[in-house]
Amino acid sequence: MKTDQISNAIQLDSSGRLIHLLGLEGLSKKHLTNILDVADSLIDSNGKLKKSKVLDNMSIANLFFEPSTRTRNTFEIAAKRTSANVINVDLKNSATKKNESIIDTMRTLEAMQIDMFVIRHKQNGLPHMVAESIGNVSILNAGDGINAHPTQALLDMLSIRQHKKDFKKLSVAIVGDIVHSRVAHSDIQALKTLGTTDIRLIAPPPLQYDAEKCVAINCYDDIEKGIEDCDVVMILRLQKERMLEAEIPNEQEYFDRYGLSTGRLALAKPDAIVMHPGPINRGVEIESSVADGPNSIILKQVTNGIAVRMAVMEILARKD
Amino acid sequence: MKTDQISNAIQLDSSGRLIHLLGLEGLSKKHLTNILDVADSLIDSNGKLKKSKVLDNMSIANLFFEPSTRTRNTFEIAAKRTSANVINVDLKNSATKKNESIIDTMRTLEAMQIDMFVIRHKQNGLPHMVAESIGNVSILNAGDGINAHPTQALLDMLSIRQHKKDFKKLSVAIVGDIVHSRVAHSDIQALKTLGTTDIRLIAPPPLQYDAEKCVAINCYDDIEKGIEDCDVVMILRLQKERMLEAEIPNEQEYFDRYGLSTGRLALAKPDAIVMHPGPINRGVEIESSVADGPNSIILKQVTNGIAVRMAVMEILARKD
Amino acid sequence: MKTDQISNAIQLDSSGRLIHLLGLEGLSKKHLTNILDVADSLIDSNGKLKKSKVLDNMSIANLFFEPSTRTRNTFEIAAKRTSANVINVDLKNSATKKNESIIDTMRTLEAMQIDMFVIRHKQNGLPHMVAESIGNVSILNAGDGINAHPTQALLDMLSIRQHKKDFKKLSVAIVGDIVHSRVAHSDIQALKTLGTTDIRLIAPPPLQYDAEKCVAINCYDDIEKGIEDCDVVMILRLQKERMLEAEIPNEQEYFDRYGLSTGRLALAKPDAIVMHPGPINRGVEIESSVADGPNSIILKQVTNGIAVRMAVMEILARKD
Prior knowledge:
320 residues, alpha/beta, Rossmann fold, 2 domains, 13 helices
């Protein structure tokens, strides 16, 4: 499915309450702020994550059709911190091999009375299709194709809000493979909803949005122009196969043209924060001195990722 | 081991209490009814599974020598709903590779003070051999070769009992690969123990019981004769390799000859229930309109599968 | 790294309290005795392991870079018995594949606020390097290269202490591939710290310590001389590839020359105990009649392995 054909309407019930988290289009500033507030409340004054009993009677299934140990772990840790039971469904050996359709698998898991599915799939809109097909399970999109990765965007917003006061006054640069990035897509949506108007997308032309989309947003090929006076620099993870698509023959050349070095970071505001969804490719999209430097909040993002996922689970669990 | 050489005697202690669940031969109607009653008590009036603390201090190991995500998940979910600790032992990398015999592995897990083993193995009677070799662990047979699959039969009986009053008055048809099916074997045993006399087995001749066994039970080649006026139609899952054995060249031909279509279901009683252990092959052994139709209780079987496994775990845990 | 260059200094804080368990060099008799005492207190008078709530709010990650289902299971079971959350990180699909360095992976898991890492790695000193690189996580070495396997040695000491009164008066023989064995290394260290002076190492010459090391310890090629009048015989597990290195063409020849048979065991003291870290190769390093005989405490070692790991986790958790 093309990403602009995917509707998130089903994620709100008739009173506008969140019953699935499929994507950020269609969520109001109030929805986002509520999730961030709950997430903040799960972190104590020393930065330690709390443990709650909110999902004590609930079961959550991790359904990762694309392998991603890291993201799966964050959902598993978040679920266990809310005291939920967690089932990691091994989809390599599962019935989908035996010709059972994905929907039959989902209906079967629903009949096992799992309360929430965390779904990652390479197909755009797959979590939406599941949400439409089953009735009693909350769906949490953990990344679908190039469409959306809403919890990543929410943890990014939480991390920005902890360091910067007003989303409306921010200049935010996003650097990397914009066009294929579900993270960029969800981050742009979240920033718009929260009021940020100066969003700058920096990418090699083959990895940049098309001219039509770039009318409404600031597109750059030159990273040094793009990050000038920015408050926030969000670096995307580079997939090797994308370098070739962008006619960049090797990692050094990518770093030379688009990598975030100390020198380039000096063009942003002195208190600019540097973000990355991880895992980082040191020396490719970011210099180690920047990744480990005082402006980097990369590891704080990881902690916030647990808090945001706990918050979303708790909010979804409250529906009844 | 041949299935008729396997004894379940060890599953009862000297007072007749259940200490393992290896198979249904040797269990009385009282044993089965007790398990079904406990299972029913674990489902509330809205059909929701309860959560118990009965196994709060116990550990259960899932030992699946045959891969089966689905059945393993049901045991894991059931165990967690009783508050037990669950260990999924990865037998691919385990010591059985290193020449340690299976019994040594089992004794080692026993020494780790695991309280229950859930075992699936392609060898007939393997769970029985384990039960004989170790002293302090309850064995739960999750399917051994073509011998038995007792929890599947128990969930089937629970599903039937929820819809039909008296097992004695029922006509039950089982359709598919009878001779290789541990599910069929255990279902037939359970039905007999509960008093059903009209059991009809429908299969292509190469997948049917031999003439000797068919003396005591009703064997059919023709599905339309077999399901006439039935109260219950149990469809078995078709394994592709069995089609060839039955000289059926493709799925369409199997469906034409043995598949449960709306037309054929009309030959059974109007309130007949349709069952399948899942995952279903739509358009092969069952038509989608039947699988999803009003007579189907396939998804209810899944829910009952959790309740029955919780019930068996609780009953086994009470031995002391 | 060479094993004699590895320092465990970081495992104690400035007051001498244990904050990591990396190896046994540098730990006092008091440290070891404390761990054994806590472990003993976790076993009731019937030999049953207790369940504690000590780590109720903690999360433990199993990070096994070398596959070992058995040891991983013992840590998982131990952690769950202390009521901790356990995450088994699948390192096959993890970010280490994506060029993220191990340290970045560890820092990320630290940022997820995991409290303890259980690490097994083929590289000597890897757990030490991790302990030096991260600040807020306790590291538990589950085996690094040929360097150390401290929890195995501790469970061995607990098993000896349950059967023999005074470590100072014991004669202990260790048989097998001494030079490549992290188990032997840690056992020797533990025995020395606890006061045992008569330690005898029995190995084929290519698998024996070098002459320099054998000055301070008793090295034997001949098992019959080595185990004479011993109180304890510890058999190591034989790796097939080591037989060739020792110019032993097959398992029978290894057994003939170094295997523990009933006859050879008769050379030790009548109440000698026989130990093995498991899984055993029956008929290679040990005869079945010995492994299953009255002197064997092999399965008791397994139970003690859970108790010792629970004890270490509880002691590490108390740091603050």
